[in-house]
Amino acid sequence: MQEELPEIPFPLAGMPPSEAGSGTGSGSASGPESAAAGGAGPRRVLVAPERVAGWIGRFGQRHGGLDQQETDDGVLLTAADGAAARLQPPWPADGRPGSGSSPAERVTAQAAQSRSAAVVLLRRGGYAIGLCQDGAVLASKAGTRYVQSRTAAGGWSQQRFARRRANQADALVRTVAEHCARVLQSGVGPAPEYLVLGGDKGLCRELLQQPECRFLAGLPQLDFAEVPDPRAAVLATVARDLRAVRISVSEPEARPEPT
Prior knowledge:
five-stranded antiparallel sheet; Nucleotidyltransferase, domain 5
């Protein structure tokens, strides 16, 4: 019997509804095994490396025998009933592919490698910055800064509010850039290998143009994080999800009832 899993409120990249599975807790990337955010098409799951073998076992039990096929970006599992699951590691091999006797084991081993990332979550009114490794936040800074909301007024009043709002957003970006330089170059932990941005894409683009963030602009970027207002708890969730294996699940097509 399938167990209904709760939704994760802060998926790393706007994950749609999850493949149901069993078990929750610290072994998963974010407690439960899945991240859900609605939408059609393949369902996507975030699974911590140490839980992947169990997830594959349950998937096989539900859908029949599995065939593993190595692909350019991971591994494709095909079940006897037509269901399929595509497993992808959270980061590129970069000369460090995972080891194992099967494609799924190699993807899992690559996901479990210790790698570091700078995470910067930024929206109008808030930010969270962290140096993350092995699912944990090693150094961080989170805070709020007022940015005026939009106004429906017209004419001169609307222009004045728009200028004030733009100035407040610029000040927020400059403040976050200074915090990035301080937190992410503090010497606490390793230098970041990757960059994860999240929140407001426009503000994130402006941030990378700041002189203090030149060291970030050259880092390989991982999936953009679709998050609500950045907070320390949201940053911790993103850090845990960073090392999770990405799984896209396609269910078999329903067969028409015989007439």
